[in-house]
């Protein structure tokens, strides 16, 4: 840029930066337009097994995450109890105490109880009695 005076060189640099910024903004816009959009699925308590405490449990859990996440778990009552403690300690969930905690734990332990692991793969028939 030796052939340009200081003012012209500054104008060229400014123009270059403007064009570069426009190209970057365009690239970001294209990338954002191509990114898959996350659409949360609406959930209602009625979508889950009917048992006492369903609504209380649903609304307690969905204050922070969807209920499908809960429905995918299978835990003993003791493990559900420890999970509620973990949610309190690590994630700031308001403490459930007394009757409210019992209602939620009863529902979780009854409806989303621990399941026996499914047998997988080939099983030797001679080892079974």
**CATH H level of the largest domain: which superfamily?**
Cytochrome c-like domain
Profile the largest sheet. none
CATH class placement of the largest domain: Mainly Alpha
| Cα-to-Cα separation, first versus last residue | 89 Å
> What value does the average pLDDT take?
81
Shape: elongated
Number of domains: 2
CATH architecture term of the largest domain: Orthogonal Bundle
The structure class reads mainly alpha
DSSP summary: helix tally: 5
- Provide the low-confidence segments as ranges: none
- Secondary structure tally: strands: 0
Q: Determine Rg (CA atoms, Å).
A: 29 Å
Question: Helix fraction?
Answer: 55-70%
CATH structural fold name of the largest domain? Cytochrome Bc1 Complex, Chain D, domain 2
Order of helices and strands: HHHHH
What order do the helices and strands come in, and which of them pair?
Blueprint: H1 6-34, H2 54-61, H3 67-71, H4 77-91, H5 98-111
Helix pairs in contact: 2-5
Give an overview in words.
This protein has five helices and no strands. The termini are far apart. α2 (54-61) crosses α5. The model has no long low-confidence stretch (mean pLDDT 81). The protein is mainly alpha-helical. The protein folds into two domains: 1-34; 45-111, Cytochrome c-like domain (Cytochrome Bc1 Complex, Chain D, domain 2).
């Amino acid at each position: 840029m030796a052939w340009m005076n200081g003012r012209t060189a500054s104008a060229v640099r400014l123009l270059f930066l403007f064009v570069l910024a426009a190209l970057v903004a365009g690239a970001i816009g294209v990338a954002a337009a191509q990114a898959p959009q996350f659409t949360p699925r609406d959930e209602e308590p009625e979508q889950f097994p009917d048992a006492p405490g369903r609504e209380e449990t649903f609304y307690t859990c969905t204050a922070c995450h969807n209920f499908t996440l809960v429905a995918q778990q299978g835990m003993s009552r003791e493990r559900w109890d420890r999970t509620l403690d973990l949610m309190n300690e690590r994630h700031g969930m308001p403490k459930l105490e007394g009757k409210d905690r019992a209602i939620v734990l009863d529902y979780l332990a009854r409806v989303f109880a621990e399941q026996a692991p499914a047998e997988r793969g080939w099983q030797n028939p001679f080892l079974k009695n």
